Structure formats: C-alpha cells, structure tokens
C-alpha cells in the first residue's frame, strides 16, 4: 500500500469513527463499541488513531462539540435537552465542556448566534428595500 492510499484509508477510518460516534449519541460510545462496529480490534483502532495523531476521546469531544454548535444554532432545545442529546449526564458537565471548546457558555453562544442571525436578516431586508427604492439588480 503506497502512502497516498494509506492516508486515504486513514482519513476514511476517521470519517467512519466520527460517523459511528454521532450515530450512537446520546449513548456514550466507547472505543470498544466503535472497534466492534468497524470489525477491528480495540488495539488496531487505537493504533490507527495514533497514526493519525488523535485519540478516541478527542474524536468524541469533536463530535459532541460539532453537534452542540448545531443544536444551539438550529434548534430551540433547552440546554438540558442538548446536554442529554450529547450524552452528558449533567447539564453542568455540558456547560463546562462547551466553555472549554468555545471559550464561552452555551447560553452566551446561543445569544450571540441569534443576534448575528437577526442582524443578517435585518441587513437582507435593508438591502431588499434598497433594491426596491433604487432599482438595484
């Protein structure tokens, strides 16, 4: 196997691990569960992740982080519901993790995200009004 196909196969493995983690949430997926689902041994999965300079817990955190961003930006779920969807037993654990990921609390992130959406909608409406007033196309 040449280095390009090895890199491609490793990238594919990372995609599969992330996909499996996302599918398992809100259950707390383990390395054992993912290795079994991918039909490889735990040690082989650990070794392959190490070759990609990552760890299973880092991939789990990444998947949770991405899902949290999605839920906060695109849903009306409460923080407690989001924490559950991400596999956290306590809302406080989710808030602590989110603050590490983003540097702010999930509530503050949601407020800023909503303010940005409102500002964007305001600008689009203003631009549309300019088009009508001045015939801009």
UniProtKB/TrEMBL annotation:
<feature type="domain" description="HTH araC/xylS-type">
    <location>
        <begin position="15"/>
        <end position="112"/>
    </location>
</feature>
<dbReference type="Pfam" id="PF12833">
    <property type="entry name" value="HTH_18"/>
</dbReference>
<keyword id="KW-0804">Transcription</keyword>
<dbReference type="InterPro" id="IPR009057">
    <property type="entry name" value="Homeodomain-like_sf"/>
</dbReference>
<protein>
    <submittedName>
        <fullName>AraC family transcriptional regulator</fullName>
    </submittedName>
</protein>
<keyword id="KW-0238">DNA-binding</keyword>
<dbReference type="InterPro" id="IPR018060">
    <property type="entry name" value="HTH_AraC"/>
</dbReference>
<keyword id="KW-0805">Transcription regulation</keyword>
């Amino acid at each position: 196997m040449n280095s390009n196909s090895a890199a491609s196969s490793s990238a594919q493995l990372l995609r599969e691990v992330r996909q499996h983690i996302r599918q398992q949430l809100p259950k707390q997926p383990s390395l054992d569960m993912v290795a079994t689902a991918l039909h490889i041994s735990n040690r082989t999965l650990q070794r392959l992740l190490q070759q990609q300079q990552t760890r299973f817990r880092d991939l789990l955190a990444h998947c949770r982080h991405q899902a949290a961003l999605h839920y906060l930006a695109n849903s009306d779920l409460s923080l407690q519901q989001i924490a559950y969807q991400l596999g956290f037993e306590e809302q406080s654990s989710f808030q602590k993790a989110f603050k590490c990921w983003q540097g702010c609390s999930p509530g503050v992130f949601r407020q800023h995200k909503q303010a940005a959406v409102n500002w964007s909608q305001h600008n689009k409406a203003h631009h549309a009004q300019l088009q009508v007033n001045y015939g801009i196309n």
